[in-house]
Amino acid sequence: MPGQRNLSRRSAPVGAMHRTPQEDTPDDIERVNSAVAPFRLDRNSMTVLDRELGRILKRERDAAAAKSGGGDDAESALGSIRADEEMEFHWRRRLLRFLHHRSVHTAMTSLLILDLLAVVISLELQIQMSSKESMAKEACLTAYKTGAAVPAHFLNSSACNPGGLGACDYTQQASYQAVHGIHIAELALAYISICILTLFLVENIMMMAAIGWFFFHHFF
Fold this sequence. Notes:
rod-shaped, disordered N terminus, transmembrane, transport, mainly alpha, about 220 residues, Hvcn1
């Protein structure tokens, strides 16, 4: 009828309003993992090991088959190669699980915070050392200007020290005496920082041993 609207062309199919979500295909999962892998290296490290193991076994299988020409010899060689590779990846998996353990992460984070505190405190101690040394030198300069003392190299000179004044050595000032203790504390903090950085280096070396050259994969 002319007064009725034609809704047949505007109405959507019934099935389109109730679409079921499509499951992710292996290719989709692979693309997602490749995209987010640089940001979650810890979660994908086991997957990286599995992929590396598969590639190595395939390469060694092809090499053994080409060398032996097929048959039982190739299968025997492949079995030996598989056992060696799985033994190697067994300790690498255990090492990776140890490095990714919550307690290890907590300890390394605590060491990082401790190292930052040591660096900040060390910088503050260096500022205090410079300030106290300047105060000691300023005290001796004031004594020279007022005629209360003379420099140490003028002490035995009658021309430069006719009044027989005493010498002023800034290293003997009270403000300078604290510099030695501050310097020892600053050295102790420096050694602590070196030890912490050494532990970080050992952790990274262990991680490289566990996941191989894929350790640098997230940089590129």
